[in-house]
């Protein structure tokens, strides 16, 4: 069980690393349209993961514990949205600087910050598995981890490729892209450590992570690409949602 948990925590980080490695093999970077399609599909994956791997298990666990199922689902979800909204606004305020090196740091910091709820999501799922919750299986937890890893593929490239395009050496751009994903396993480990002392809070943690992921999906992945090509974007979102749904059913 410990080995499965370690693997599950590291898989999303591996996705970021593979995505960042694009800077080592692509001469001219990734096509903007392809990147948009990947982002839209990733949004669908994360939306499905929020529902099937986080919110539904949260409601089932709350009901088993005697708590009204809707309470942690709704309150935790809204808390996650509010938390990410606050951090998003805070990062924009401290990022308003014309210094190029500072702008580079803020780019990595912004993505790293948005990786925190994804790490929490994986950590919460594996915390449920380690605590013996019947509604969380090893395969469903790994399906969530794999879904986030797929979402991280374009995210790693989004960091490393622009840095290289601005004149940074390939190796350094790659390392910064990798570093942006390090917050995920850290957040996952901290979530597991917290849940061991407060297993009853697990439905709230799952719902909180779902809300945070929903905020990232709605405000970071979708707006730009959907405004340019809404029909193709929606189709990619639906494909990603269907893919993650199938993974959750087949692997869970």
What does the model show?
This protein has 252 residues and is mainly α. It has 11 helices and no strands. Helix 3 (32-64) runs antiparallel to helix 4 (70-94) and helix 5 runs antiparallel to helix 6. The chain is globular and about 55 Å long. The relative contact order is 0.24.
Q: Can you tell me the residue ranges where pLDDT is under 50 for at least 5 consecutive residues? A: 96-101
Strand content: under 5%
Label the overall shape.
Answer: globular
Q: Given the helix and strand composition, which structural class is it? A: mainly alpha
Features:
0% strand, mainly alpha, 252 residues, 11 helices, single chain, globular
Short description:
By secondary structure, this protein is mainly α. It is about 85% helix and about 0% strand. The chain is built from eleven helices and no strands.
Summarize the topology:
Elements: H1 2-20, H2 22-25, H3 32-64, H4 70-94, H5 100-130, H6 138-165, H7 170-179, H8 183-197, H9 202-221, H10 223-228, H11 230-251
């Amino acid at each position: 069980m410990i080995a499965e948990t370690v693997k599950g925590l590291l898989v999303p980080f591996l996705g970021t690393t593979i995505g960042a490695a694009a800077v080592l093999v692509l001469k001219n970077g990734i096509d903007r349209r392809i990147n948009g399609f990947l982002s839209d599909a990733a949004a669908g994956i994360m939306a499905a993961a929020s529902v099937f791997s986080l919110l539904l298990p949260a409601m089932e666990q709350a009901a088993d514990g005697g708590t009204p199922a809707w309470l942690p689902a709704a309150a935790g979800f809204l808390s996650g949205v509010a938390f990410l909204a606050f951090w998003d606004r805070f990062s924009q305020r401290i990022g308003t600087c014309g210094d190029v090196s500072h702008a580079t740091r803020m780019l990595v910091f912004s993505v790293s910050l948005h990786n925190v709820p994804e790490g929490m999501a994986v950590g919460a799922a594996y915390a449920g598995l380690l605590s013996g919750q019947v509604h969380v299986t090893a395969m469903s937890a790994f399906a969530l981890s794999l879904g986030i890893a797929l979402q991280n593929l374009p995210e790693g490239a989004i960091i490393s490729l622009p840095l290289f395009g601005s004149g940074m050496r390939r190796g350094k751009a790659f390392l910064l892209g990798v570093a942006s994903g390090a917050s995920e396993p850290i957040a996952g480990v901290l979530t597991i450590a917290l849940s061991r002392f407060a297993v009853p809070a697990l439905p709230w943690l799952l719902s909180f992570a779902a809300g945070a992921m929903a905020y990232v999906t709605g405000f970071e992945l979708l707006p730009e690409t959907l405004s340019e090509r809404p029909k193709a974007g929606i189709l990619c979102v639906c494909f990603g949602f269907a893919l993650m749904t199938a993974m959750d059913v087949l692997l869970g």
